[in-house]
Amino acid sequence: MEKIDYQIKEEESGERIDKLIAGMDGSWSRSQVQQWIKDGHVTVNGTSIKANYKCSLDDLIVIEIPEPEPLDVEPEDMELEIDYEDEDVLVVNKPRGMVVHPAPGHYSGTLVNGLMAHCKDLSGINGVLRPGIVHRIDKDTSGLLMVAKNDLSHEKLVQQLVDKTVTRKYFALVHGVIPHDHGTIDAPIGRDPVERQSMTVSERGKSAVTHFTVLERIEPYTFVECVLETGRTHQIRVHMKYIGHPLVGDPKYGPRNTLSTGGQVLHAGILGFQHPRTGKYMEFNAALPDYFTELLHRLRQNR
C-alpha cells in the first residue's frame, strides 16, 4: 500500500479535502477519493475525517492508497455489439435477456463478463462486480448503455446523469390505447413495502419524471417513445403501470393476461451524452430488435 504525506499550504486553507486530494493526481477521481476517506485511508493530523472537511494551514494529511481489489469475475469471450469505443468511453447495444453485471451467486454470462474480455481498462468506482458500469437497464430490456473506461470518465458521465443532461429515449409497447399524443408522468418511485423486489409510486420515494409520446395506436395496444428525465429502478415500467398502461409482457408490473413475449417489450433506442474528455455531444441510435419489430408487424396484420 503506497503512503503519501502532505502538509497544507496557506493558499489551500479552507479547501475541501476530497477536492484537494483529487487534484493532486490526474488519475484520481473525486468519487474514488471520497471512498478512500470513508474507508479510513485518509487521516488529518492522525485523525479520520469526512469528505467535506475544510483544510487548515499546516494540517498533515496522510493518504494510504489501497491496492486494487482483485476481481472475482472472470472475462468471457462473447459477441458484443459495440457502437462506439475510444480510450475513455464505450457504447454497447445490450441484447434482451442479458444481465448487465454479476451479483452474488451469479457471476457469469453478464455484460460485464463480456466487457472484461473485450477491454482491460474499465473504471473501478462501482467496485469489483460492476467495473465500468455507469447506468443499467433490466435483463429483458434491450438497448444502449454507456460504459466508462477510467474513473475520471465515470465520474463525469455520472455527473451528467445527475444534471439530467443525458438523452435516454426508450421505445415500448403498452396495454391499452392512450388517447392523448403526449404526456408527462411526474410521480416519485420507491421500494414497494409489501413486495420488496418491486418498485412502486410512493410519496416517500425519490423524484421520478418520464415523458412519453404516442408513436402508433395498434388497438388494444399503444407503441410509445419514453424519455427519461430521471433514472429510477424500473422507472418506465412503474410509471406506465401507474397511468393504467403497463408494458406488454412485463411479468412484474403487467397484467396476468398479457402477450407471451419473454419479458417486457422495452428497448433503449437512443442515447446521447457529452464526451467526458472533449465535451462534444454524441448521440447513438440502436434500431428496434427483431423481436420488437416482428411483434409490431403481427399486431398490425391482426387489427
UniProtKB/TrEMBL annotation:
InterPro entries to which the protein is assigned, alphabetical: PsdUridine_synth_cat_dom_sf, PsdUridine_synth_RluA-like_CS, PsdUridine_synth_RluC/D, PsdUridine_synth_RsuA/RluA, RluA_PseudoU_synthase, S4_RNA-bd, S4_RNA-bd_sf
Organism of this sequence: Bacillus norwichensis
Keywords, ordered alphabetically: Isomerase, RNA-binding
Coiled-coil zones: none
Function noted in UniProt: Responsible for synthesis of pseudouridine from uracil.
Record-stated family: Belongs to the pseudouridine synthase RluA family.
Domain of life: Bacteria
Protein name: Pseudouridine synthase
One Pfam family in the UniProt entry: PseudoU_synth_2
RNA-binding S4 domain segment(s): 15-72
Entry keyword RNA-binding: yes
Enzyme nomenclature, EC number: 5.4.99.-
Keyword set includes Cytoplasm: no
Record Gene3D superfamilies: Pseudouridine synthase (3.30.2350.10), RNA-binding S4 domain (3.10.290.10)
Reactions that this protein is recorded to catalyse: a uridine in RNA = a pseudouridine in RNA
